[in-house]
Amino acid sequence: EPNGLAYDTRRHALILMHDDRTVQWIDAASWRPLPIAGTVSGTMPDHLYYDARNDRLFVTSGRNQRDGKLSAYDVPSLDMTASYTLQGADAIEGVAVDRRDPQARG
Asked: How far apart are CA 81 and CA 92, in angstroms?
């Protein structure tokens, strides 16, 4: 069953992440699967953010009382390009990007 959801504005597709860590793209018009799918890493991956400018998928993961993680994946290969430990960010419940911050690349 789906656990994470994002929207891919380049491909006009929903991005679904299932409880088993599989990720798939679904065409928003036809509801048919697109040929982009794979598995993400991390303990209890939970939330998604799609960066259309750089064609990357960000995934948060973590458990209560543990440092969280933010991982970046190339699309469409779903190869992990970066992973960051977020100290003190346990049980992450969303992703936001501040485009005014010069460090933000999403």
From this structure: 20
